[in-house]
Amino acid sequence: MKQLIGLLLVVVVAVAVTLMAQGNSSKVLIFFGQYRIDMSLNFAIIAILFSFFVLYILMRAWRASSQLPGKFKEYWMNRKQNALLKANTQGLIALITGDEQGAQKALNQASKTGIETDLSYLIRAMSAIQADRYDIAEEILNQEKAMVGEHSNALVVLRGKVALSKQDFAGALALLEAMDPLAAKLPQVQRLRMLGLMGLRRWQDALVQFRGCVAVSALTHSEKNEALTRIYAGLCEIAGQDSAKMQEVLSGAKPVELESSSVLRMLAAGLMRSGLVTAARTMLETALKQQFNKDLLPVYHQVAVLEPRESLPNVEHLLMQHPADLRLLELAADVCEREQLWGKAISRFEAVYAKQPSAHVAGKLERLYESANQSERAKVWREKLNNHLQNDRQLV
């Protein structure tokens, strides 16, 4: 309906203009020196309108032609950008899936565009590091184009990982310490710095850095346990048999760090080596009261038999809570033997033997019955011990 009304208006306007033109007898004279041009007013109006439209079209064509090189350049740039985006996407997928060859192919495709960014090299280097190809990662990171970009912090982190893989701990620390203070607080930077300090055996600094890593959640659970064990092993090794230094290591340990059984074992061994048996016993008893951990029983066994009188109440308490644990039952028996509580020691060793017969327990029972002046019972256990030893020789 709208098109019909519009067409009708155009027809009406055209008829009106035609009628007005027919009744218009005016003329236009144009003089050029001695020459003149005669034309009707209607022709002059049409000529002016036509000239205007021709001039307009020519100007638009000229403007479009001047913009053509820019549009053509933009078109090709968009094509390159799309190709680069596709290559980087493929490289990232290859990095996630561990496809090292796919990452290399993606980098080659990005290089063909001529506008590759440092992102292409970061993806390729990360893929090489993920595949333990540190030599290739170092070669990529040393390329001139890989050094140009806005991701300098990421490049330093990758170079630090390569340096650590080559056991160049001092070089890795030098790279990390040259970063600005804000970048130094990044989780991966703190993690790499901790590994560098551990490599240089700067255990006290490594412990401080470890706590910083824990605060920013830079370590996985397994990495946390491994690092903490290595650090405390190093601290105990440096302390050696110096009781003052070992006491300092123990007092500096945080409660959350003493929840690790491996740390407790390291500290207990160091404390016993330096003669601080009571400190080792107290530390282990506190840990076992808070949370019973079977992994601590072997080292606690070593400490408890050295101070049987002091450890007996705690051992009895633990045995009441966990009566079925054979290692705890044997520990209680050993402590009772040290305290010359022959009856308790015998009953507990016999309970262990009933559940798990062995030459080791049979020998202890023989010795206990001899100490209790019960030679007949000692003879019985001597025969059982000989049977175990004979069976063991036959198996060998």
Percentage of β-strand residues: under 5%
The number of distinct β-strands equals 2
For the biggest sheet, the summary is:
2 strands, antiparallel
**Uncertain spans, ≥5 residues at pLDDT below 50?**
none
Which structural category fits the helices and strands?
A: mainly alpha
**How much helix is in the residues?**
over 70%
Q: Largest sheet, order of strands side by side? A: 1-2
Radius of gyration: 45 Å
User: What gap, in angstroms, lies between the N and C termini?
Assistant: 109 Å
Order of helices and strands: HEEHHHHHHHHHHHHHHHHHHH
Any idea what the shape is? rod-shaped
Domain HemY N-terminal: 27-130
Main location: membrane
Subcellular location: Cell inner membrane
Protein name: HemY N-terminal domain-containing protein
Description of the molecule:
The protein has 396 residues and is mostly helical. It has 20 helices and 2 strands. The chain has helices spanning 2-22, 41-97, 100-113, 118-130, 134-141, 152-165, 169-177, 181-184, 187-199, 203-215, 221-239, 243-252, 261-273, 277-290, 297-304, 308-321, 326-338, 342-355, 359-371, 375-395; strands at residues 27-32, 35-40. A two-stranded antiparallel ribbon has the order 1-2. A hairpin with a 2-residue loop joins strand 1 (27-32) and strand 2 (35-40). The model has no long low-confidence stretch (mean pLDDT 82).
Give the structure's gist in a few sentences.
The protein has 20 helices and two strands. The protein is mostly helical.
